[in-house]
Amino acid sequence: MTKISQRTGAAATAMLGLGVYRPERVVTNDEVCEVLDSSDEWIQTRSGIRTRRYAGEDETLVEMATRAAQAALEASGVAADELGTVILATSTHAQHTPAAAPIVADKLGSRAAAFDVGAGCAGFCHALSVASDLVRGGNARYVLVIGVEKLSLFLDPTDRGTAFIFADGAGAVVVGPAAEAGIGPVAWGSDGSQSHVITQDRGCRDADAEHPLVVRMEGTAVFRWAPFAMADVAREAVDSAGLTMSDVDAFIPHQANLRITETLARNLKLPEGIAIARDVQDSGNTSAASVPLAIEAMLRKGEAKVGDTALLIAFGAGLSYASQVVTIPPVAGL
Ligand SMILES: CC(C)(COP(=O)(O)OP(=O)(O)OC[C@H]1O[C@@H](n2cnc3c(N)ncnc32)[C@H](O)[C@@H]1OP(=O)(O)O)[C@@H](O)C(=O)NCCC(=O)NCCS
Asked: Percent of the chain, pLDDT > 90?
């Protein structure tokens, strides 16, 4: 049998730098309720959301991803032409072909391998794990991971189960070799028997609409699943990193909904003093972008700092989920 050589890469990997892009326009609950049959009070009580951001016409998905990626490259001190791979997680790139990642890579000045990942709101944590393994496996030295969504284009503004929840934004990190491990083993999986719970369908849109699909969600089913099933997954991520909850400085779950975050945190019996990400209050649910946006928000507000140990967990359409313990990297502009 012919012997095929395989590569081996870095012994340890970490996120080297993080960047975000938040769209300009802040949208209040009152503005959402100009069309939606709801109220600011109901939305805040049931979801914690006070405001969210919607991207304008010139803030395309590719543009937001590129801006976040440029910031992540700057924060990490890695040049675009050093990237070996670009992985872009999204559910709202309007075309299957071409993927968004090669377009973003080109805008950055990179000819790296580039592909999109579709794992719903868990896309960033999936891509982060793949990136770490690419560097450890030797197929890339530096990998750019982007989570980006323009969900405002995929909303039915009259749908009481989704219109107030979802929003736009982008976050990116560069993953590369490190002296100490800064990305723990992933705990991940899927439950496709619940694939009907979060979907995209034609909904209210005309067949010839530019973005013909809208997001649909059985919110109560998500609520029954996430805070309970995800507690075991988060515990597995901490165990497999060789840590206990008392080693964790910050809990940064996908910003689905404040009630999910708080129920999950209670179920995890987090020790006193762990900082908990609550960026959903200001940013809404930005799906694959929510975890890097939440990391940036915690650093900006002084709730966490560079070098802290953070427990990430993300979950959503699929149903898909992924969790890992990480070291918080430097963030551009902070
Ligand atoms: C969407 C969500 C906020 C709805 O809250 P809920 O308490 O489950 O709401 P229900 O659908 O059971 O409806 C409860 C009541 O509120 C009303 N209601 C539902 N949506 C409403 C809205 N947007 N505004 C005002 N009232 C609303 C219903 O009509 C119902 O009224 P009734 O009791 O008089 O019949 C909740 O299910 C949720 O947060 N789910 C998780 C969603 C999520 O985070 N997904 C992210 C996936 S990654």
From this structure: 92
